[in-house]
Amino acid sequence: MLKAISITNFVIINRLEIDFKTGFTVLTGPSGSGKSLIFKAICFCFGRKVDRSAFLDAHLPIGIEIQIDDPEQEGITIISRVMQPTGKSKYLLNHQPIKIQALQMHFQRLIGYSEQHQHYTLLDPNTHLQYLDEFAQINQSKLAHAYDEYQQLETKYHQAQKIRAAFDESTLTHYVQELSALFDEGHDYNELNEQIHALKTEQKIKETASTLINEISSGSMQSSLDELIEYDFDEKMDSKLIEFKEISADLKIQLQDFIASQDQTRLSHLQSRLNTWHDLARKYQVHPIDLYDQCCRFVEDLKVYQELDVETLALERNQSKLRYDEIADTVSQTRIDRAKDLDHKMTAWMRKLGIANGQFKVMITTINPSRYGRDQIEFQVSTNIGQPLSALNGVVSGGELSRIALALEEVCQCHLKSVQLLDEVDVGISGAVAEQVAKLIYKRSKKTQVLCITHLPQMAMVADHHGYITKEIEDEATLKFVFSYLKLEDREKALAELLSGETIDEIGLSHARAMLTQGSEIRQSHPQEEIEATL
Questions:
Q1: What is the pLDDT of residues 161-218, one digit of tens each?
Q2: Lowest mean pLDDT among 183-187, 367-371, 531-535
Q3: I want to staple 255 with a disulfide (CB 3.0 to 4.6 A). Which of 209, 235, 502, 506 is the partner?
Q4: 369 neighbors 328 (Cβ within 8 angstroms)
Q5: Is residue 323, in this structure, part of any structural domain at all?
């Protein structure tokens, strides 16, 4: 159960600390007082996203700390989240860092949160299978495992058939050998192109060097140099000409050595290899850069082919299919049998909760096999005499849908966590029906801690505790969020407020006192079995 929460700088809450109580607690207050903020703060602490408006002061961090009595842990578990104005959050479990994914798993295990209008998810038939299987106590994991095993063998079998039909061993061996030979010197297509580009650059350098050697070696150049030196017309010039002649001779030798050092056949070899690469890419209809991956696929196909035993795979696949069918048949029959019980119980609950002529029916149709079996489940209802059974989205009002959802959760024991947060799930009902719903939620609170935001006096009269939320102006400027547990006299006023609005008179107070007396009798005088009998 939730033990306590501390909230700082969250929406309109500057600082708030609440110690929670066991059993059934209702939260009420004027419209717009921020009743949902406590629930939102709890969800925020467990990782729910918020926008910038969640900061009361945009320059300060948001801080939420929750103390919770986890039945799977010894002592009190402390969970906290601090979100900086930059948007960065830090999560702690018992003062140690924890990843948000792990924290959200704790939330899903410990807390059931029914938000406003969440019961509309019941209009989606895809959710109905889970309710029925919860009620029938069907473990879907065994069925899912059998289906996954069958699908894996089915895939292997079809892969084997495809390989056998497309190739033979000698063809695959040839493909592997042909491509493997290409990759003896490496399998990087881009690297091969870079090597060829570098060698082509060297080739151009050699051609230029050869031209220069020829020019240095030409008789006209040497003759002109000798003739100028013989004139002896300038000592400095003669020195430079002699030096140039010697440097030219040395450069010629070095250029000849460079040309001789180059592998004249390397470029043609690599170019031939690149041409082969392109030819094979066209042959196997892949991009040249993907040719190595194609070779690896052929290697894998050859391995599969050599280990191929289609007959054995077919036998294993068929045996796996039989195992799945056997489990799916059992599950289907269990669903059919238990659906009748669910029909009976839900019809009774609908009538208890004010849908006087209600009727509930689980429709089961056969579909293609899946991890969940071969059954499609759809809940159908009739809410009036003479009305045919129809899908939920065609016949029920919002109030009726919320009651059906509450009844389903009770009958199927779905989503029963250590803590139940109910945000106005009683919308659309009033009077005697509201009283029946209140009794139902009070009954649930005997098994789990329930916090319920409500506008119904019938809900408030049955609760063990009444929390009141309001906003006050402090120092003529500051808005203050206030939470308090009400004592008996204040509960009377809060109940009268729910009955008649802000204007409270003695008639309203008298009615509120009578309702609180009735609620006290429900809580104290009736054991759980008698509560169930009155529902």
A1: 887 777 777 888 888 888 888 777 776 778 877 877 777 777 777 777 677 667 667 6
A2: 531-535
A3: 209
A4: yes
A5: no
| Domain assignment present for 83 | yes
Q: Assess contact for 67 and 4: CB atoms under 8 A.
A: yes
| 532 is a domain residue | yes
**CATH code of the domain in which 481 resides:** 3.40.50.300
Domain of 285, in residue numbers: 169-306
Looking at the fold, whether 288 and 178 belong to one and the same domain comes out as: yes
CA 298 and chain centroid, separation: 36
Instruction: State whether residue 113 is helix, strand or coil.
Output: strand
Find where tokens 């702690």 sit.
Answer: 92
Closest by alpha carbon to 363, among 382, 391, 341, 344?
Answer: 391
Where is the domain boundary, 262, 279, 306? 306
Q: How large is the angle between the packed helices 310-352 and 140-166, nearest 10 degrees?
A: 150
Q: How many domains does the structure of the chain reveal?
A: 2
* CA–CA gap between residue 197 and residue 183 (Å, rounded): 19
Lowest pLDDT segment from 90-104, 272-286, 401-415, 469-483: 469-483
Phi, psi of 87 (to 5 degrees): 100, -5
Number of H helices, E strands in the chain: 18, 15
Determine, yes or no, domain membership for 221.
yes
- pTM for the whole structure: 0.64
Domain edge (last residue) among 244, 276, 306: 306
Q: Work out the percent of the chain whose per-residue pLDDT is above 90.
A: 39
CB 96 within 8 A of CB 80: no
| 101 and 221 assigned to the same domain | no
Residue 219 has a pLDDT of: 58
Q: Residues 4, 17: contact at Cβ < 8 Å? A: yes
